[in-house]
Design brief:
CATH superfamily: Flavodoxin domain
CATH class: Alpha Beta
Order of helices and strands: EHEHHEHEHEEEH
Largest sheet: 5 strands, parallel
Number of domains: 1
Number of helices: 6
Distance between the termini: 22 Å
Helix content: 40-55%
Structural class: alpha/beta
Number of strands: 7
Shape: globular
Radius of gyration: 16 Å
């Protein structure tokens, strides 16, 4: 069973993104142990000076959860053609570390449109050397019409999520195999 740290990029209490993550956790509960993180709003604002001083405990815990996970699943909305500030802030807190370097990730942008935020998220994750593929990323436009009550109600979206998770599991297995061969 793979351990996945799932980051919800939305701060809305019952957002489509949180519903998607919950649906994914429920659908794949026999294959993945998914911990959903919704606390981005609690993070202090990243500044280089804050990074050089004592790193806040909440940030240290966040980094540790990423480091210990077999993979990271990010599900985010798009705000004004970009990533939500809280998600960007959280990622910035990881830049001085290598927690995302070669870490298998699955990326979902679920919003009204989502294309610009998705492009930005992919670029950022590529820049910090996260490991993902075309198959382990997904942009879901019209997300509110595709989830309801922690269930994916759109058949195409459900199929696309299944394909994404299959790809994500392959990425995690490959990363584990590479790590095991390097240890030997």
């Amino acid at each position: 069973m793979k351990n996945v740290f799932a980051i919800c990029g939305s701060t809305r209490k019952d957002s489509s993104n949180l519903q998607l993550l919950t649906a994914i956790r429920d659908l794949f509960q026999n294959e993945l142990n998914i911990e959903i993180f919704t606390g981005l709003i609690e993070f202090p604002l990243f500044t280089p000076e804050a990074e050089q001083e004592q790193t806040p405990e909440i940030i240290q815990e966040f980094r540790n959860k990423i480091a210990k996970a077999d993979g990271v699943l990010i599900c985010t909305p798009e705000y004004v053609h970009s990533l939500p500030a809280v998600l960007k802030n959280a990622i910035e807190w990881t830049i001085s570390t290598t927690v995302f370097s070669e870490k298998p990730v699955a990326l979902i942008t679920a919003s009204g449109l989502g294309q610009k935020a998705h492009e930005s998220l992919c670029l950022i994750m590529k820049t910090i050397y996260a490991r993902f593929s075309e198959e382990s990323q997904l942009c879901i436009s019209g997300a509110r019409t595709k989830v309801s009550g922690n269930k994916i109600i759109d058949a195409t979206t459900l199929n696309n999520i299944k394909l994404l998770i299959e790809s994500f599991i392959r990425l995690m297995n490959t990363a584990q195999s590479l790590h095991s061969s390097q240890v030997l």
